[in-house]
Amino acid sequence: MLSLAVGLGMGYVSALTNQVAVPTKQEMKSELQDVNKSTSLYFANNEKVEDLQKDLTGKSVPLSEMSPYLKKAIVSTEDSDFYRHNGVVPKSIFRAIISDVTGIGAQTGGSTLTQQTVKMQMLSSETTWKRKAVEIFLAMRVDKYFTKDEILQDYLNAATFGSNNKGQNIQGVQAAAQGLFDKNAKDLNLAESAFIAGLPQSPSVYTPYTTDGESHGKFKDDYKLGLKRKDVVLYRMYRDKQITESQYNDAKSFDLASDFRKPAKAKTKTIKYGYVYNLLTEQARTILVKRLVKNDGLKYSDVKKDSSLLEKYSEQADTELHNKHYRVESTLNKDLYIAMNEQAQQYKENLGTSHTDNTTDPITGKNVKLTQPVQNGSVLLDNKTGQVLSFVGGVNFKQSQTNHAFYSTRSPGSSIKPLITFAPAIENGLIGSQTMLADFKTKFKNYAPTDYGSTIQNRFVSARETLEESYNIPSVNLYNYIRSQGVDSSKYMSKMGIDLSDKEYSQLGITLGGTSTGVTVLQQASAFSTFANKGVHVNPYVVSKISDPSGKTIYAHKSSKNRVFSKQTSYIIKNMLHGVVTKGTASAVSYESNFSTKNLFGKTGTSNDYRDNWFIGSTDGITLASWIGYDNLARHTYNLSSNSTDINQELWSRMANAVYKQDPEAMNVHKQFKRPDGVTSYKVDKETGTKTGSVKYNGMTAKVNQHTTTSLYYKGHPTSLSYGNFAIGAKSKNYKLFWNNYFGRSNGYGVVTTVGETTKSAEELASENGSGRTSGFSNSTNNSDSSDVTTNTTTSSTTNSRTTNSTTSNGTSETGTGSSGSGSGSSTGSTSTGDSTTSTGDESGLTGDSAGTETGIGGGGATTETIGE
């Protein structure tokens, strides 16, 4: 009857485990002997970063180097039938059946030594009925292939034995012997062996030591429970005839407390590559959590919503990583990582002021000094593969372990403009590179954007120049316009790995980086690399492969690609953004770089009050993004200096130079961006962005064709010349001001004004913005050797008075028709007019729509405003 029950039970266990992969003997051996090791982390090319710090300290020793008393004590205490069963006993099988049928009794008390060894070394710590069934199955398989002494040795090296005198958790009898009694396992006497053998049942309860929380062990106030447990072990040994009555009595009366080691302080270990260590550990943990969740038949998306369940799986993954010998391989190039971080360290004192204040530690409640330097987060991406080649996590790991490249979310400032506004506009045929955008005082409900330094350009600005000089008002006008035309920027952004809320997209300030959630440096670098990759976004990654202790690959990264923009749109954006580094807000990069920037394009970004500063630059091979700013802990609101754009560009250039010196092939700076079929060049009027033609002015028809340039389109084409409706976001009074100035009147068109009070000139504000800097050597001159991406247009400053030769319909030459007026301020000055800009002079000769009407503008507003550069 018993044999029948056992047979039925084994059949039931077999049914539960029929989906379990059967491990080979070698795989089982690798797992069983994987003790006193932890996960190893690697750079690319098999260069080791570090082994994870173990939760347990210990050292494996063979059975021959363990006291005979210890072996007998463990068997008598944990599994007196160890040498007689085949890995399991019938009650274990029945327990699994009852647990499955009733849903209760899933605890694993009474497991054999073989089962305990399997559980510690081959399974997770969960206590489900299915895991119990797998445990039984594997225990029988282990018993079949390994001797009892081999199994016992594996158990004694893998079991945990509480804390040692330094407060460290210990694994294996050798570490227990040394940590408790300052001797080797082979030299333990009977009383000491019995004490150690009693620990596995409840290590934290029976150990005599605890920790003071500062890597220093100390005696418990009361450790009598451990001594009583020792006596229980001695009795079981005597009961099993493993020791004599005399030995039992002598060991029971032995003064064990005097044998315990005195408490001491544990040595601390310095992690050389702290940011890499933490990053790879966190990424590997997430990968293992997903694997554990999948193995349990659950969805990771559901588990993430349950914090307690997610914590449970995270703890399981942590235990695996810190106590088993996994191998985590990364994409990080060690030489590039060192090169970039050396530059960050050498330049960090130039980033800005470090602020030191007294504050209260929220955990301890103690008053502490808090020093906050300007932080840097940088990411170097391989455009084609999405591999993270290198990064800078911060300027001082000891001071702040926050990884500012991967996990800090910040306002992207104007660096988001090409992604969220200009590329979608080009993709949908709404603009060309020379389409005019209005840069005049405007207001959307309660939102009144301005350009950098609270300035307004008071003129029409091309889409190209808007990106080059990072003007805000034209960008807001364009974003508002594409929304009114049904263009949904979110579908492009999400494909590039940036998910914002509907509320954020509904606010016009989002095109200036006004986001409540923020983005990481990795996200911005990855999204920006889409343009270099001809409109295809490749998901970034840093962990390439994970192997388990047996060497089996349990994770290998699979590349994920998405077509976001067409090749044509990407080319036009690259063409426009090349001007940013040749003559725009990042022109300093062209002469600070030690490599050719003929094929470099990029974008700057600054958030409100200089809270954040960005520069992202791409070549054919790589994208390098650099962010600087303060953490602003303890509710501080420190801002960067007004020249932070210059500072960040120099840091970017230093890092890029170091990368180029280390691995010039990775950057591929000489690879030109070839113009794809489908990009059409149109000859347009430079002032209006339209086709050349005629316009009626003061009762005459005048030809407008003296100054032309090239506008690039993917879809659509430039419109015909007209008096109005050629600039996005323009009002009739803006056209009126423009045409009056075009035909010679001095009326304030193109005069930079400032909203609010300032003592700075327009040139000073422009310098802070990083614009207009063409002095110094630039190795990105426009010549026959330049890449096709090189900007072909030139930008001239708009003067307050203009002389234009126009041919009227009757063939006579007219110069500046209409009477001249006196404009407020000069073309080179900055006029502060409070909340309004006042223009004086006779405008009676102008014709057009009534003042206040808007072209292509709908309603909208923003709760967050960010400035340009």
Q: Any overview of this molecule?
A:
Keywords: Carboxypeptidase, Cell membrane, Cell shape, Cell wall biogenesis/degradation, Glycosyltransferase, Hydrolase, Membrane, Multifunctional enzyme, Peptidoglycan synthesis, Protease, Transferase, Transmembrane, Transmembrane helix. Residues 379-632 form the Penicillin-binding protein transpeptidase domain. With 869 residues, this protein is of the alpha+beta class. Among the domains are: 2-38 and 50-259, Penicillin binding protein transpeptidase fold, CATH 1.10.3810.10; 39-49 and 273-330, Penicillin-binding protein 2a (Domain 2) (Alpha-Beta Complex). It has a 5-stranded mixed β-sheet with strand order 2-1-8-17-18, with helices on one face. It has a 5-stranded antiparallel β-sheet with strand order 12-11-22-21-20, with helices on both faces. Strand 29 (805-807) and strand 30 form a beta hairpin. Helix 18 (463-469) crosses helix 23 (567-582). The chain is elongated.
CA distance, first residue to last residue: 86 Å
Strand order within the widest beta sheet: 2-1-8-17-18
> So what's the overall shape?
elongated
> What's the CATH C level of the domain at 2-38 and 50-259?
Mainly Alpha
Q: In what range is the share of β-strand residues?
A: 15-25%
The appropriate CATH architecture of the domain at 2-38 and 50-259 is: Orthogonal Bundle
Return the CATH topology of the domain at 2-38 and 50-259.
Penicillin binding protein transpeptidase fold
Largest sheet, described in full?
5 strands, mixed
The CATH superfamily of the domain at 2-38 and 50-259 turns out to be: Biosynthetic peptidoglycan transglycosylase-like
Determine the fraction of residues in helical runs and give it as a percent range: 25-40%
Round the mean pLDDT to the nearest integer and report it.
Answer: 84
Helical run tally: 28
Give the C-alpha Rg.
36 Å
Keywords: Carboxypeptidase, Cell membrane, Cell shape, Cell wall biogenesis/degradation, Glycosyltransferase, Hydrolase, Membrane, Multifunctional enzyme, Peptidoglycan synthesis, Protease, Transferase, Transmembrane, Transmembrane helix
Organism: Companilactobacillus nodensis DSM 19682 = JCM 14932 = NBRC 107160
Pfam family, one: Transgly
GO molecular function, one term: serine-type D-Ala-D-Ala carboxypeptidase activity
